Amino acid sequence: MQFTAQQIATLVHGTLEGNPDAPVRNVAKIEEAQSGDLCFLSNPKYEEFLYSSNASVILVNENFETNRLFTPTLIRVKDAYSSFAFLLEQYNNMISGSGNVGIESPSFISETAKIGNNVYVGAFSYIGDNVTIGDGVKIYPGSYIGNNVVIGAGSKIYAGVKIYHACILGSKVVIHSGVTIGGDGFGFAPLKDGTYKKIAQIGNVIIEDDVEIGANTTIDRATMGSTIIRSGVKLDNLIQIAHNVEIGANTVIAAQTGVSGSTKIGKNCVIGGQVGIVGHIHIADGTRINAQSGLSKSITHENTTLNGTPAFEYKSSLKSQAIFRNLPEMQHRLQKLEEMVQELTTLISSQNLEYKK
User: Fold this and answer.
1) For residue 269, what are the contacts with CB-CB under 8 A and spacing of at least 6?
2) pLDDT, tens digit, 9 for 90 and up, residues 264-279
3) Cα-to-chain-centroid distance, residue 31
4) Helices 327-356 & 314-325, crossing angle to 10 degrees?
5) pLDDT value at position 316?
């Protein structure tokens, strides 16, 4: 697949400087680019690579000023980073089959399912009774869509996704391979004989518009009511969201984080990797939690940054870490002080004896 610099400039509404016929066959980082590659420059610390780069075409900001000779063709745009991201999205759509339309065989679609226009259903997929699928939805091979599921327009369900019955997905939702939505919440009642009785999980999962969920993440259905992922949320791979959790709009969560049941996370939060969050707490809007932290109580003040296990205010945690690192030296100094005190005590005792004589 090959494009010219002029075609790309037209696509991003940019101004061309150089060879309009410069070929582009791939995308790359500016420090690694070779002939035929397209890359971008927006961070000034990478400017030096422009003058030595073998790239064919480089996107730059429209106000960027060069100070030496260079070889690549430039395309000037308002925001090089955003324009490059746009091109990556278009390229990904071309290579990932996002333009596919139609029903592949073999696949099963219930007679009671309602399928919108320009929908793609990959081979070996299952679509249950009374499912509603909006216009332009892409369901890739090997996916399971349970009874009474709703999937909004423009959503993408990648290969091997499992969506249990009665779950509701909004528009432009992206679900990556291996995700399970609507599995039973972890609900068991302890019995007197030491065993556990399963509590039926009769709720569902609601995922609002523009949510993206990474590979092998699991979101449990509610015991009653709904587990809710609000609009704009981005979840990384390998995350566990328990029953009746609610995640506020535009919150992002990194990989291997676990959120226990009935916890409510506010909007615009940022949660790092491997964070553990206990159940039945509230986390205020704008909270930032550093990687590998453990949160055991509610956060009531907005825009708080937390660190450590148990997690507490970031600056205080850094001071505590500094003290912890210095503990061996502090112990050594304490031992020296104890020795000095002992020597002084002995000296004073001996002087008192001399005085009494």
Assistant:
1) 248, 251, 252, 283, 285, 286, 287, 288, 289
2) 999 999 999 999 999 9
3) 26
4) 60
5) 67
Q: Enumerate residues 6+ apart whose C-beta is below 8 A from 27.
A: 37, 38, 39, 84, 87, 88, 91
First to last CA, the chain: 105
pLDDT tens for 159-206 read: 999 999 999 999 999 999 999 999 999 999 999 999 999 999 999 999
Cβ atoms of residues 101 and 119 within 8 Å: yes
Pick the CATH number of 3-95 from 1.10.12.10, 3.20.20.140, 3.40.1440.10, 3.40.1390.10: 3.40.1390.10
pLDDT of residue 357: 56
Summarize pLDDT for 281-325 with one digit per residue, the tens: 999 999 999 999 999 999 999 999 998 877 656 566 666 667 667
Q: Where are the domains of the chain?
A: 3-95, 102-316, 326-357
d(CA 47, CA 25): 23
**Concatenated DSSP letters for 72-114?**
SEEEEES-HHHHHHHHHHHHHHHHTTTT--EE-SS-EE-TT-E
Q: What are phi and psi of 298, to 5 degrees?
A: -65, 150
> In the structure encoding, which two tokens stand for residue 262, read together?
């009935």
CATH class, 102-316 region: mainly beta
Cα(259)–Cα(239) distance, integer angstroms: 8
Three-point CA angle 131, 182, 247, nearest 5° = 110
Active site residue 332: no
CA nearest to 87, candidates 35, 44, 33, 26: 26
Catalytic residue among 13, 176, 243, 301: 243
Q: What distance in Å separates the CA atoms of residue 283 and residue 257, rounded to the nearest whole number?
A: 15
The pTM of this model reads: 0.79
